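Bump. Still looking for Proline iminopeptidase structure tokens.
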Amino acid sequence: MTTTETVTTDDGVRLWAERSGRGATPLVLCHGGPGLWDMFDDVAGLLGDLATVIRWDQRGCGRSGPCDGPWTVERFVADLEAVRRHFGLDRTALLGHSWGAQLALHHTLAHPDRVSTLVYVSGTGIGPDTGWHGAYKENQRARLGERPERLARWRELTDMPGRDGAQEREWAVLHWSAEFPDTDRATEHAERMAEPWLGINAACNKQLNAAARSACGTPGLYAACAALDVPVLIVDGAEDIRPRSAVDSLERALPHVTRVTFPEAGHLPWVEDPRAFQEAVAASLGSG
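Sorry for the wait, here they are.
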């Protein structure tokens, strides 16, 4: 059974949330972005027999209520805590993807006694982004350039001031198509991500990305990860356009870590290798 609920944070912001699945283990999913919304339909379906899956849209995004921030890592960690409390969970497994992997990690560091296991999917580690961001941009343009017309239109829309809603959606689909190594199906996969189209919160994206960057590469973050007594599964797609070497910093720091890399997957590994993704997460949930 699937139920939709509203979580109210301590500062009065309304968050969309949904519970599904019938497994005994509670599992909260943290979507990427920042500024996007939950796109975990497939993941919830894959894991519903293993866990009771809770999905939510982060503040000011997607189906959650409008707000003006604040767009800080600490505020989003507190929002995730509000989700946990709303559903009456003493401890929960967390699965975060991309920016959501960073959020889930920061929540685990802040509240290790409330997290049974962390599944860190397609994140970018804990080092400074100068170590990977330039290569990511180059890889993105190279993959878009495999279809020159796609790259040309993406560039046109990127430089277009005041894009309307339809143009913003078209830009996002082109942008996301670079996340998939199968060029023939990339647009199809990206179109699924954009359905339904709920719009991108640009202020959230800009300010929260800056806040997350400022937290990376600090001695305190390395030390906190080294002291973390929670099992962590790192999941990578080898064909992610973000260099996977960025995640080495996190893997080296963690004392209880397993890493699984899917050789033919990109940034959304459950799309290209759903069975292997399901098996890897199942093993992690069993050990938490």
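The chain has two domains: 3-132+201-287, 133-193.

Edit: fixed formatting.
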